Predict the 3D structure of the following.
Amino acid sequence: MYQGGVKERLAHDEWAAVMQKIASDQDRKAFEKLFAHFSPKIKSFCMMLRSQHTSPQMADELVQDVMIKVWTKAKYFNADKASVSTWIFTIARNCRTDYLRKLKRTETPLVADDLWPMAEEEAPFASLEQHRIEKTSIMR
């Protein structure tokens, strides 16, 4: 079984130590170091997962969300269970999933009848309002 080289273990221990500083002391310098290292990687990760909603702006928002969660949940990091990068990218994946779910909930399909009432109707706005009221009462 491959145990990794000395360089990989030192890097792993370095990031675990940085996370410990963030968790125990809320060390801003340690967080800046972590942010500088992982934020471009998180953005690339988000951009790599192409979908119809992936954009540089969305990736930037996700970086912010992920790093806020890293800051607030640093005390829950356990180096015995995962490396820092695995832990952070798990948070990134979950944030992206939450973001896409949120987008799906807010998308409202437009119905042509809402936009273009029937031509023979004399009061199109009253008809539209009545149609919406009827729809709402059916849904309840």
